[in-house]
Amino acid sequence: MGSISNLFVCTVLSITFICQSSYSQAPCPVEEDPIQLAECAQLDVQAIIQGARGNLKLFCNLAERYMECFKTKTRNCIGGWAAEGGLTELQNLAQWCCVNPGVQEPDECPLRRNPKCFSTDDYVSMANGETKVLRDLRPGDRVLVMNSEQKVVEDEVLMMLDSQPKRPALFHSIETVSGHRISLTGNHFLAVGHNDRFVPANKIQPNDIVFIHQQGQLQQVTVRNITEEYKVGYVTPMTNHGTLIVNGIAASCYSSVISHDLAHYVLAPLRWWYHLAKFFSVEQPFEYSAENGIHWIPMAMLQLTEKYLPNVLTIHSL
């Protein structure tokens, strides 16, 4: 969100300067009242915030108002084209999410209420001491995770529950006072230091305690800031312990259910099958493709849960 706001502040200042230096006889409205353009920029922030809360109708209405506002406020301005250039992110959101009445928003909509996970441009801590960008992580890779005793141990990536490298999603980027930063979708769990719990990213608050990996151990640090931003690409690896250390922060592998422990329990049969298949020398127990989407097994489990036990899901909460 901060990057978007900064973008439009720069746009406001640039257009104001250009308008003031214009020799055109037609009046540039920004020249008389630069605050008008700043009000347009404020509409964008409000639209994204409202959309992130699942109110897509309100988001689309505000997005339309915002784009019309910029066209109106920058008419006859030499720098009007710059304002349109600054609309790219909002236009993409509107294209992905705003459809005709009665038509379900497409999967590409970052504000869509469906399971997502880690941003593909974050890094996972590997067992050999190196890091690997999540988009390059594969089943069978050895990684570092947090166990039930809050210790750092080695583990293995069993499968990719979901892999969507080209689809956008709305992320909560959580930054600690130590400078660590992780991007998670709203209902993805993060390990916190109070009551040994996992909390959804959209419930994390400044001053909450999370775990970072330092010199082979987990240390508790305070959350400094949380921002919202949309990025392209998300992935959901699953390990034996149901956790990963991403960008140096301990996080769950799970989202979209009422608790981390419940998800870990329900997915136990997948872990059992993986180890049984490995015992019989099956090289890849679960088929994998970098752009395969949600694996058919967790997809089937999700559909059954939606039908028979919808109360255990939180996919309607961003």
Radius of gyration: 22 Å
Largest sheet features: 6 strands, antiparallel
CATH-defined fold name of the largest domain: Endonuclease - Pi-scei, Chain A, domain 1
What's the overall average pLDDT, rounded? 78
- Uncertain segments are 11-25
Q: Sketch the topology as an H/E string, one letter per element.
A: HHHHHHEEEEEEEEEEEEHHH
- Structural class given helices, strands, pairing? alpha+beta
**Mind telling me the CATH class of the largest domain?**
Mainly Beta
What does this entry look like structurally?
With 318 residues, the chain is α+β, with helices and mostly antiparallel strands. It folds into two domains: 2-97, no CATH class; 118-312, Endonuclease - Pi-scei, Chain A, domain 1 (Beta Complex). It contains nine helices and twelve strands. The chain has helices at 2-20, 29-32, 34-52, 56-73, 80-85, 88-97, 260-266, 268-279, 296-308, and strands at 118-119, 123-125, 131-133, 142-146, 152-176, 181-185, 188-191, 198-200, 209-214, 217-239, 243-246, 249-255. The strands form three sheets. Strands 1, 4, 5, 6, 9 and 10 form a six-stranded antiparallel beta sheet that branches. The protein has a four-stranded antiparallel beta sheet with strand order 8-7-12-11, with helices on one face. Strand 5 (152-176) and strand 6 form a beta hairpin. Helix 4 (56-73) packs antiparallel against helix 6 (88-97). The longest helix is centred in the first third of the chain and has 19 residues, at 2-20. The chain is globular. The relative contact order is 0.13. One of its GO terms (molecular function) is calcium ion binding. Pfam families: Hint (PF01079). Residues 115-214, 215-259 form the Hint domain. Residues 1-24 form the signal peptide. InterPro entries: Hedgehog (IPR001657), Hedgehog_Hint (IPR001767), Hedgehog_Signaling (IPR050387), Hint_dom_C (IPR003586), Hint_dom_N (IPR003587), Hint_dom_sf (IPR036844), Intein_N (IPR006141).
